[in-house]
Design goal:
Layout: E1 19-24, E2 30-38, E3 41-48, E4 54-56, E5 63-69, E6 75-81, E7 88-94, E8 101-107, E9 109-113, E10 120-124, E11 131-135, E12 143-144, E13 156-157, E14 163-168, E15 175-180, E16 187-188, E17 197-201, E18 207-212, E19 224-229, E20 236-237
Antiparallel strand pairs: 1-2, 2-3, 3-4, 5-6, 6-7, 7-8, 9-10, 10-11, 11-12, 13-14, 14-15, 15-16, 17-18, 18-19, 19-20
Length: 252
């Protein structure tokens, strides 16, 4: 949909097949997403926004989620889940799915690139409680970013690389937080009471899109997409559907 909520249109057309974790390519011409193939197998697909053609990039590697193209358009990071032990491993592959391999010893989920492509932000419980960490694509320079309670995962970097948004809180009491890129000065961004989650920065860094239940609190199917300015003002609702709208990712 357009950034003001207009022009909503459906991209994936297979009824009763789960498609999720969409992310727009840096050039705005395609969308990556994870799609169900069979039990314990989710593949990564790319949909061309110009002709609606779909390419599958992976082949029975496991539960693959959260694909995202690097800022230079050359690589894709994603998470591979092992259904036998529930663990997720961060992965890298080429732009067309070639050369998929582990980022050595980096276990976690919901990876997202820094704007300069030098780091990957991700969630992990490697130290016990779930927190955000950052690492170089070669697996070096691992360091912890956040120290928040009841973290979940989905996060994003501001276009200038100075800020991070994520969400934290117990079920039905989650809030979006904004902080410096090193994790300092974390503050709640969203108004209390919306069970807000899954944030994404706008390309100009002035807005954050996220999922919330301000108008349908307590309804499992009542989440909608909202936007808010990075100073916590001007909350706006973008969607109005009888199903749950979630995991927004802003693009060009």
């Amino acid at each position: 949909m357009n950034a003001d909520g207009s022009g909503l249109r459906r991209l994936t057309l297979e009824d009763n097949v789960r498609h999720f974790y969409p992310s727009l390519a840096p050039d705005g011409q395609s969308v990556l997403y994870s799609g169900f193939r069979e039990q314990n197998v989710y593949e990564i697909y790319s949909l061309d926004l110009n002709d609606s053609s779909v390419d599958r990039f992976t082949d029975k590697m496991g539960v693959l989620t959260a694909p995202e193209i690097s800022p230079d358009g050359k690589s894709i990071t994603f998470a591979r889940g092992n259904p036998n032990n529930g663990r997720f491993q961060l992965m890298l592959m080429g732009r067309k799915g070639e050369g998929a391999d582990n980022i050595p010893q980096i276990f976690g989920w919901d990876p997202t690139w820094s704007p300069d492509g030098k780091q990957i932000l991700f969630a992990s419980d490697r130290d016990g409680l779930i927190q955000l960490f950052a690492v170089k694509p070669n697996g070096k320079g691992l360091h912890k970013i956040t120290n928040l309670p009841a973290m979940r995962g989905r996060s994003d970097w501001s276009p200038d690389g100075q800020f991070i948004v994520t969400y934290s809180g117990e079920a039905w009491n989650r809030e979006v937080y904004i902080m410096n890129a090193d994790g300092s000065n974390a503050r709640q961004l969203t108004p209390t009471g919306g069970n807000s989650q899954g944030p994404s920065f706008s390309p100009d860094g002035k807005w954050v899109a996220f999922t919330a239940y301000f108008d349908n609190y307590g309804d499992d199917h009542g989440c909608e997409i909202y936007i808010i300015r990075v100073d916590g003002t001007d909350l706006r609702r973008l969607t109005n559907n009888d199903y749950c709208d979630y995991q927004p990712r802003w693009g060009l």
